[in-house]
Amino acid sequence: MIISRISGGLGNQMFQYAIAKAIATKNNDIFKLDISFYPKQSLRRYELNRFNIQETLANESECIALRGTENIFYKIKTKLGWNIKRPVYYKYEHHIMLFDQEIWNSSGDMYVDGFWQNENYFNNIRNELLKDFKPRNPISIKAECHLNNIKTMESVSLHIRRGDYVLDQNTNDAHGTCSINYYFQAVKYLETLLTSPHYFIFSDDIQWCKENFSFLSNKTFVDDTENAIDDLVLMKNCKHNIIANSTFSWWGAWLNENDQKIVISPVEWFQKAEWKSLNPAPASWIKL
Predict the structure, then answer these.
(1) What pLDDT tens digit does each residue of the chain (288 aa) get?
(2) Is 114 in the same domain as 183?
(3) Rounded distance, CA 184 to CA 215, Å?
């Protein structure tokens, strides 16, 4: 049995689901999800159940057996710097965004704890993930209207991540935000290749986008959808994608099934100096 710790926002949840399913498929095993992160905080919500996924939730005793206990005494000891020994089944991601061959080669029971933002873990089950990450319920009526337009135009999704990237100092120090110049250069590049692109703009700060993207003439601000699933479905159905340094728009581009798609990604995913060389963008994507 493989158990994956699910945490963070929707984009991170999708990576954590994908590695669990990929390892289980390779090993002819079952996988379960540990969603115990969510009742303990209010910033993020568990959202994978909005998709048509294989959802089997791990219970507390199964999690403890594979990852060890994480009770109040464990937390106090770790804060004091104690080195708490985990069960041999516990597999922790030591290097973010780098493919870990040792973990990939593991078999038998395991508990995987990390973000796993590397497509090499799950490229071999892409067709399965395309099915799994379809919404369980119909998208909203307003999203459906946008989708009809997206399908008839030379549509380009353009995603701007702000929110906690701006408001939370620790998050800002690590990630930073993509500059207006990045988007300007991305648009300039695309317009050398496309005849009449139309940009569908997605953001957690649409008002800021309306104030700063006047240089775009053919654009639609997607400001009337109902949830993240609406936005993800619309992004993946655009013919091309300009993404932010965000796992959410990464998935919007990766799930795009257009064989001729052009995906533009920031060359630097992180602002933090020691992470600047890390980037989850596939080799076929254009990095600017």
Answers:
(1) 999 999 999 999 999 999 999 999 999 999 999 999 999 888 899 999 999 999 999 999 999 999 988 766 566 556 656 677 788 999 999 999 999 999 999 999 999 999 999 999 999 999 999 999 999 999 999 999 999 999 999 999 999 987 666 545 566 656 668 899 999 999 999 999 999 999 999 999 999 999 999 999 999 999 999 999 999 999 999 999 999 999 999 999 999 999 999 999 999 998 787 888 899 999 999 999
(2) no
(3) 8
Q: pTM for the whole thing?
A: 0.94
Residue count (the chain): 288
Residue in the structure block whose two tokens are 């990390």: 114
Same domain, yes or no: 149 and 242: yes
- For residues 6 and 61, membership in a common domain is answered with yes
Q: Which residues pair with 202 in a beta bridge?
A: 159
Say whether both 209 and 118 belong to one domain: no
SS3 of residue 107 by DSSP = coil
Alpha helices (H) along 82-179: 101-105, 126-132, 141-152, 164-167, 169-175
The CA distance from 79 to 85, in Å, is: 14
Write out the residue range of the structural domain in which residue 6 sits: 2-132
